Amino acid sequence: MRTLRDFGFGKTSMNDFIMEDFNALVAKLSQRFGQPLDVNFRLNLAILNIVWRMVGNESFDHDDPVLLKLFDSFQTSLDSRGKTSVFKLIPMRLFPKAVRWLMISSFLPFRSNIDQFLKETVKNHKATRDENFNRDFIDSYLQEMQTQSPGSVINETNLLANIRNLFAAGSETTATTLRWGLLFLIMHPQIQDRAQQELDEVVGKDRDVHLDDRGSLHYNEALIMEILRCGNIAPLSVPHSCTEDATFNGYLIPADSAIVINSVHMHRDSKYWKDPLKFDPSRFLDGKGHLRTGRIPGFVPFGIGPWGWAIVGSAFSVSVRRPWDSYSKLARKFGGIMSVSMSMSAEDIIISDYDLALEFFNREEFVPRPPLVPFLLSQKEGGHEGSGIAWSNGKTWQENRRFTLRTLRDFGFGKTSLNDFIMADLNAFVAKIDTGGQPVDLKSQLNLAILNIVWRMVGNESFDLDNPVLLKLVGAITKLVNARGKDSIMKLLALRRFPQFFAWWFGVSKSVMEIDVFLKETVKKHKLTLDENYNRDFIDSYLQEMKTQEPGSVINEGNLLACVRHLFSAGSETTATTIRWGLLFLIMFSEIQEKAQDELDQIVGKDRDVHLDDRKNLHYNEALILEILRYGNTVPLSMSHSCSQDATFQGYLIPADCSIFINAVHMHRDSKYWKDPLKFDPSRFLDGEGHLRSGRIPGFVPFGIGKRQCPGEILARMELFLFMTNLLSRFTFSSVPGKPLPDLNTTFYGVVQQPPNYKLIVTERK
Ligand code: HEM
User: Fold this and answer.
1) Is there an atom of ligand 1 within 6 Å of 171 CB?
2) Which residue in 709, 721, 723 sits closest to 452, CA to CA?
3) Name one GO cellular component term (predicted).
4) Long-range contacts of 522-530 (CB under 8 A, 24+ apart)
5) How far is it between the farthest Cα atoms of the chain?
6) Does the C-beta of 682 come closer than 6 Å to ligand 1?
7) Is residue 323 part of a domain?
8) How far apart are the CA of 569 and the centre of ligand 1, in A?
């Protein structure tokens, strides 16, 4: 599944692929337009060719004798399998060998034709393979075989069997469904007219229909579903079994029994379908004429269960403490995009595949935040678009994000002038560290120092790290960030419907109020002392911008408060937690700590602080920070996205108001992108010359991906660099003797994943 998805399954890039065979088919059929025509043979050839392109990277001419022979062999093999139903009359278990011989001999000759062709193809692939580029399924499989231990089930026999299965299951099925479709069209000309009318209106007559049109062609999509329902091309699905006796709902299911889904019965069950015997595509449309979303009860044309679009009907399948682990397990079964249905509430969509995420999160319709507690609270102050940056949508989000990015850049984001700013707080933090050999927990001091940096940029003030205002602010922000994680309980109980109550229960309202009291006071002071000619900080710039706005603008005081709150909450806990992860990894992997210190000693020496200007020379230390971000997974599921109305992505329906998560942990451990993903190894971010890898790094998403990617990444990377390198240059960090290292599976998760609480020993370097 993973490999086929890489080669385009479900991606609109498949469009041209399929269209090539469609056009070849039309060219052949056009010779007989206007005359009675049996499309069976040609249709099968076209569909077989599409499968073959993905599997063997070859495309046959539709008259190519190889394709014709292959088709013939598959056809005969499939037909003879049907005949084996006669064997069921014989008590198979009593004479297994005889029955097996009878069954196999009936289609063996044809299978050997296919195998001969496939073996030849695999041989050619082996001879022409390029290690760095997989052309098709066969190449990918051969490559995967190289990584396996002896006795693995990823072997050449299974490669051949897989290809045979893909051909058999992927060509006849689709072609037959299309034939049913054409038959239904001639039986119901008024339905044909209606589908054509939609095509004329939506696509027009000057271009081909494209996969991208799916989201707009509701009736045509519904027509295809109705063809699947009424055509029942796999009427009893493919039998399942169980290897040992099992019970289900109190019934004994004996080992080795054949378990069959009667999909015909389900497709005609009046419990699910009104007038089930009528051919009527509109049953798949909702009141607005849009395609029905989510799981459709009673509709099982592709079977049911673990296949493709995961529908996990119970929140109990997903760990509340470490949901990404549960999602990863499911992703290995169901693929890079899946839906997890948390009973009674909106669905969660989980994207675990980096390439899919890249396309998905760059689409405009998936920019919004879902209606969770923070959003609903911010809606109270900002109307239906919410307020601020992190929990807003639409124009409010767009304009406030744009303004914030521009203004923070003016105040030094990405400039080395920020060096002294950050160093002032680092030095204040270092002054607080106990280096007397006693075990210390640096959590709260780190949080204070990092929040102070954000506050300097936003409010042009710097607190002493013991200042009670700062302490109160950090407490409120920590509560705010951590409360978010608890809404998984809400999902379970569909409590989204009572957001105000839960905001109160989880302490979100109280934290917001505490922060706002402080912010309102600060904004008031800024207004009194504002100098038109000089903006001291973010608040001044915002107030100045407000003056240039028309009434009703989204640049207003409510959004100013929300933006600052969001910069606080998104910009402090995240960075401070990443540094805590970093220090933990240093004590766990002391040889890596030494290597980083060696580089610092060589490049910077011991007589001065590390400066932002040193970044370009400290390749290993920069790589160490990236590895901390990858391995620590500070924001494991990013922040949830949503869509305000039903949307489609690569053929999947993404229902309005669902929560969409990116499983960053899964991507950070995906062996497609990372060698030995479970090993902590900064050098994976270095190139052959020991230089930091440049450009976008596939599979690396600590700051999210797409249009809503973290706007604070540049500042965060500067903070992480100055903190980690200066700390490493001055101190050595070690674990507390006699105390076991913390268990990395006992993390705490809000939006941010906190490492388990731990103490370490800080020793000054000579
Ligand atoms: C190591 C530190 C950080 C990490 C790992 C991190 C990670 C993230 C992630 C994963 C998102 C969600 C992106 C999405 O919705 O797709 C995000 C959003 C955000 N981050 Fe960061 N972040 C960090 C530091 C910062 C800093 C320093 C600031 C600013 C001072 C900041 C401000 C924001 C804001 C305002 C958003 C919301 C963006 C929006 O909704 O458009 N972050 N961050």
Assistant:
1) no
2) 723
3) mitochondrial inner membrane
4) 522/459, 522/461, 523/557, 523/560, 523/561, 526/459
5) 96
6) no
7) no
8) 9
Query: Structural domain of residue 143, as residue ranges?
Result: 1-186
Beta partners for residue 392, in sequence order: 386
What is the three-class DSSP state of 338? Answer: strand
Query: What's at 94, amino acid-wise?
Result: L
Pairing verdict, β 311-312 and 337-341: parallel
| DSSP β-bridge partners for residue 259 | 240
Please say which residue of 146, 166, 186 terminates a domain. Answer: 186
Displacement of CA 34 from its chain's centroid (Å): 49
Q: With residue 365 as reference, give the H or E element that holds it.
A: none
Q: Is 457 near ligand 1, meaning CB less than 6 Å away?
A: no
Measured on CA atoms in the order 329, 332, 337, 338, is the torsion positive or negative?
negative
CB 366 within 8 A of CB 643: yes
Q: Which residue has the tokens 């989880």?
A: 506
What percentage of the chain reaches a pLDDT higher than 90? 39
Angle ∠(37,43,44) on CA atoms, nearest 5: 130
Residues 305-339 pLDDT 10s: 433 344 444 444 566 678 888 888 888 877 888 88
Lowest-confidence range among 160-164, 598-602, 636-640? 160-164
Residue whose token pair is 């004429």: 289
Q: Is residue 261 part of a domain?
A: no
* Binding site membership of 636 for ligand 1 (Cβ less than 6 Å): no
Mean pLDDT of 102-124: 68
Strand partners, 351: 337, 662
Question: Cα dist. 95→84, 87, 100, 106, 245 in Å?
Answer: 15, 11, 8, 17, 21
Number of domains in the chain: 2
For residue 397, the domain's CATH number is: 1.10.630.10
Give residue for tokens 């034709």: 113
CA-closest candidate to residue 569, choices 636, 480, 637, 633: 480
Give the separation between CA 317 and CA 80, rounded to whole angstroms: 42
The rounded Å distance from CA 360 to ligand 1 centre is 18
Encode pLDDT of 171-211 as tens digits: 778 888 999 999 999 999 999 999 999 999 999 999 999 88
Structure tokens at 507: 């302490």
Ligand 1 neighbour 389 (Cβ under 6 A): yes
More confident residue, 146 or 295: 146
Which residue has its alpha carbon closest to ligand 1 atom 30? 571
- Report pLDDT digits (tens) over 536-588: 889 999 999 999 999 989 999 999 999 998 998 888 889 999 999 999 999 99
Domain boundary among 186, 204, 227: 186
Average pLDDT for 9-16: 65
- Token pair for 455: 């506050």
Tens of pLDDT, residues 253-302? 777 777 777 888 889 988 889 999 999 999 999 888 988 876 787 787 76
* Residue that wins the pLDDT comparison between 526 and 261: 526
Q: How confident is residue 303, by pLDDT bands cut at 50, 70 and 90?
A: low
Question: Average pLDDT in the 141-155 region?
Answer: 87
Residue showing tokens 């003030």: 461
The CA distance from 48 to 59, in Å, is 10
Tens of pLDDT, residues 336-363: 888 876 544 456 889 999 999 999 999 9
The answer as to whether 291 is a domain residue is: no
Tell me how far CA of residue 492 lies from CA of 347, 378, 486, 497, 524, in angstroms.
11, 23, 11, 12, 42
Q: How many helices (H) and strands (E) does the chain have?
A: 27, 14
| Confidence at residue 13, expressed as pLDDT on a 0 to 100 scale | 61
Residue 334 in any domain: the answer is: no
The mean pLDDT value of the chain amounts to 82
Contact 48, 42 (CB under 8 A): no
* Minimum mean pLDDT range among 220-229, 403-412, 632-641: 403-412
Protein residue closest via CA to atom 43 of ligand 1: 710
Strand partners, 716: none
